[in-house]
């Protein structure tokens, strides 16, 4: 793996984030890419709790995914799309920055984010 060549001490782990098979406070950093939009809001709440559970104190969570700043931004985008375009993307459970901020705040975590394009965001949780 290229990660080990660059940093031989790096350990990459795979797991399901609705029931992460690791002890509490195991990881310094957790990265999730393009998985959160497959979870409904109830599952996202469970996943966030699990991510926080296995994150070490002062650790960081990075999530890259399809999301919107808020529901109004999602509504604006969907209003500008054709029916065919909507059919291609409407079966996903998009997060909003507002929702994620609210959920992570329950764990005294803050979010910063970068918008890559109209639907792709990277968030950092500390």
Give an overview of the whole structure.
- The chain is 36% helix and 27% strand.
- It has 126 residues and is an alpha/beta fold.
- It has a single domain (25-125), classed as Vaccinia Virus protein VP39 (Rossmann fold, 3-Layer(aba) Sandwich).
- Strand 4 and strand 5 form a beta hairpin.
- The radius of gyration is 16 Å and the shape is globular.
- The mean pLDDT is 92.
Which terms summarize this structure?
single chain, 5 helices, alpha/beta, 126 residues
Task: Give a summary of the structure in a few sentences.
This protein is α/β, with parallel strands linked by helices and 126 residues long. The chain has helices at residues 2-6, 41-54, 71-80, 83-89, 97-105, and strands spanning 27-33, 55-68, 95-96, 111-115, 120-125. The chain contains five helices and five strands, in the order αβαβααβαββ.
Give the topology, please.
Layout: H1 2-6, E1 27-33, H2 41-54, E2 55-68, H3 71-80, H4 83-89, E3 95-96, H5 97-105, E4 111-115, E5 120-125
Parallel strand pairs: 1-2, 2-3
Antiparallel strand pairs: 2-5, 4-5
Range of strand content: 25-35%
Structural class comes to alpha/beta
**What's the gyration radius in Å?**
16 Å
Distance between the termini: 27 Å
Let me know the number of strands. 5
How many structural domains are formed by the residues? 1
User: What is the molecular shape?
Assistant: globular
Number of helical elements = 5
- Provide the CATH top-level class: Alpha Beta
- CATH H level: which superfamily? Vaccinia Virus protein VP39
CATH topology: Rossmann fold
* Run of helices and strands: HEHEHHEHEE
Major beta-sheet overview: 5 strands, mixed
Sequence stretches where pLDDT stays below 50 over 5 or more residues: none
Q: Roughly what is the average pLDDT, rounded to an integer?
A: 92
């Amino acid at each position: 793996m290229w990660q080990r060549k660059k940093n031989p001490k790096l350990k990459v782990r795979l797991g399901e984030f609705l029931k992460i098979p690791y002890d509490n406070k195991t990881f310094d950093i957790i990265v999730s890419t393009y998985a959160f939009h497959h979870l409904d809001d109830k599952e996202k709440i469970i996943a966030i709790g699990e991510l926080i559970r296995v994150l070490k104190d002062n650790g960081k969570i990075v999530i890259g995914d399809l999301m919107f700043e808020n529901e109004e931004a999602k509504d604006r985008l969907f209003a500008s799309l054709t029916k065919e375009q909507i059919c291609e993307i409407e079966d996903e459970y998009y997060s909003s920055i507002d929702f994620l901020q609210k959920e992570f705040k329950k764990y005294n975590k803050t979010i910063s984010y970068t918008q890559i394009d109209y639907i792709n965001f990277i968030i950092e949780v500390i």
